[in-house]
Write a structure and sequence with these properties.
Length: 306
């Protein structure tokens, strides 16, 4: 599990997440109350699993609504995505793209390190045949797992080639929604030095910016995409700055679970039809399908037989 190590000089850095064991704080969940709920209309999620009673808050998706999606408005006005992407990211299952003549669906011309995405359409079986075209080179396939009859998850771990430009649609499937996990933001950390360390204590990322801002967000630049697991992050004041004051720190990422485990804390067992098949760490979904006796997203719902 990733965690922050925050160093400071004169002002205590206060992290936004509570630390109560029973997670009684409204809007949070998890064994250490470390995860924020993202339910529609601000509803409280399940305090253990994070499951929402209804839909996810707009802009969030996936298990426990913990994944922030890329939206049309996130792009620079000078490099806007295709109008097609605005249709596929409008949270409406009634607005779809697809026709017998349309096998190539443009999204954008933008360097983005794709890790995983969820696509909804008319047929999960047809969607599972989708391929992805980078800016350069041939189309590539990603590991896929069917979530339900209209939804498929795709996991692409080769960040070097996963520069999404368009979707190659050989089965002419109808696409209604594309949820792409947002792994970066559009501004750098300013006025601080940030270092990320791997499990062996070796630095895998270092960033220093000298001009302070009142509010900032952080992006790991595409050309410095961190492919290794990160165990800790250190934030220190830059040179002669007198004060380091952090009011809220949010960290996004998946746990590096051992084989056969998945979940935010690697607390669940994979239940794949092929026992040698590694399930997706974020969802538990299996490319080979669920093992006998299990069903549903993540293959952890026990089937009952009459």
């Amino acid at each position: 599990m990733l965690k922050f190590i925050t160093l400071f000089s004169t002002v205590l850095a206060t992290l936004a997440s509570p630390t109560t064991a029973k997670c009684r704080e409204r809007g949070w969940f998890g064994s250490k109350c470390q995860y924020m709920c993202h339910c529609e209309n601000g509803l409280q999620c399940d305090r253990t699993t994070g499951a929402c009673p209804g839909k996810c808050e707009r802009g969030w998706f996936g298990p426990a609504c913990q994944y922030e999606r890329i939206r049309f408005s996130d792009f620079d006005e000078t490099k806007p995505p295709s109008p097609t992407f605005s249709v596929l990211s409008d949270d409406q299952q009634t607005t779809c793209i697809g026709s017998p003549e349309r096998a190539f669906i443009d999204l954008w011309s933008y360097n983005y390190a794709l890790t995983w995405l969820r696509i909804q359409g008319s047929s999960a079986e047809d969607l599972s045949e989708l391929q992805f075209s980078p800016l350069k080179g041939p189309a590539f396939s990603c590991r896929s797992a069917i979530v339900d009859s209209t939804t498929v998850d795709f996991f692409c771990h080769n960040a070097e080639s996963s520069i999404l430009l368009a979707i190659w649609n050989p089965k002419k499937a109808v696409l209604c929604s594309v949820y792409i996990s947002r792994d970066s933001y559009d501004r750098l950390l300013n006025g601080f030095t940030l270092v990320a360390y791997d499990e062996d204590g070796k630095p895998v990322y270092h960033q220093t910016d000298t001009e302070p801002e009142y509010i900032y967000t952080l992006e790991v630049p595409f050309e410095r995409f961190i492919a290794k697991p990160v165990k800790s992050v250190e934030i220190v004041k830059y040179k002669h700055a007198k004060v380091l004051s952090l009011c809220e720190v949010m960290l996004f990422g998946d746990s590096a679970c051992p084989a056969g485990k998945f979940g935010r804390e690697c607390e669940r067992d994979c239940n794949c039809a092929d026992r040698q098949d590694a399930c997706f760490v974020s969802t538990g979904s299996c490319p080979s399908g669920c093992a006998p006796g299990y069903t549903g997203e993540g293959c952890w719902t026990t089937q009952s037989y009459m």
